[in-house]
Amino acid sequence: MKRTLVWTARQWPGMEHTHLEASDKGVTADGIIIAIVDEQPVRLRYRLECDPSWRPVLVTVEPPGGPEMSLRRSGERWYDGDGRERPNLAGCLDVDIALTPLTNTIPIRRLTLEVGESQDIDVVYIDPSPRVDVRPQRQRYTRTRDGYRYASGSFQADLLVDADGIVVDYPGLWTLGSR
Predict the structure, then answer these.
(1) Percent of the chain as helix, strand, coil, to the nearest 5
(2) Is 38 in contact with 50 (CB distance < 8 Å)?
(3) pTM over 0.90
(4) Is 26 left (phi over 0), alpha (psi -120 to 50) or beta?
(5) Residue 109 CB partners (closer than 8 Å, separation 6+)
(6) Boundaries of domain holding 9
(7) Long-range pairs for 56-62 at CB < 8 Å and ≥24 separation?
(8) pLDDT, tens digit, for every residue of 10-59?
(9) pLDDT by residue (tens digit) across 108-147?
(10) How many domains are contained in the chain?
């Protein structure tokens, strides 16, 4: 699969452009988000690499003015760009970069849930604004008739996805414009 994806933000002015490529060798996503969030301009480049089973192995985010932040997964452990282990992220399998609906597609593709099934997952949550903050977070995905219910803490959203598991509608936040 090779897709060029463009989402339009609905809660604030902005958009995301991502090139996604999946093959039997793995998955890569290279994206940029440009938006105004809470009256603050945001520009964020990211690159995400996954193995063929859609398990993230490398994530890099580049906020304007730097510094670039990179994490690599080896087994159950995560390491920063200098090779230092991040013990607080141990056991996290997925990555969720705040502001992008693309990172919801990763667990959707990996979990392959049947309608009515749910799964709790631990993710590396990356909040890029106002500075890059990385922490573990528990999330839940539930397969619905039309897509997936995503929940984390008190937040939940019913995500509409296409046949490739790409989020096409993230209510109130993002709409996919290119298919």
Answers:
(1) 5, 60, 35
(2) no
(3) yes
(4) left
(5) 54, 164, 165
(6) 2-176
(7) 56/93, 56/94, 56/95, 56/106, 56/124, 57/26, 59/95, 59/97, 59/124, 59/126, 61/97, 61/126, 61/128, 61/132
(8) 999 999 999 999 999 999 999 999 999 888 888 999 999 999 999 999 99
(9) 999 999 999 999 999 999 998 777 899 999 999 999 998 9
(10) 1
